[in-house]
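Service request form, structural biology core

Requester: graduate student, group of Dr. S.
Request type: structure prediction, single chain
Budget code: on file
Notes: please return the result as structure tokens.

Sequence provided:
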Amino acid sequence: MTTPRQRRFLYAHVSWTLLGIALLATVGALTLEYVFVCSFVGLVLLTALTGPVHATPHWRTRLRWPLMVGAVVFVALVALRTLEKFIASL
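Core staff response, request fulfilled:
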């Protein structure tokens, strides 16, 4: 059973992602890579900005795994793009 705070967090993240998709579609840069980056940045920001000060609810500790997997994928995307730019400049 979800709590109101969980639902608000989920609604905020879905809203962030949909807004990012709409913005990317507006500027003509809608790719899966950019959608992932936008969604991941939103998840990181929401987790940081809505975190409780003194106690961490159990459901927030489960956010650690999506954040870690997202960080690994993000670093891989950045590394691939960097290698592409580096190889293209040779």
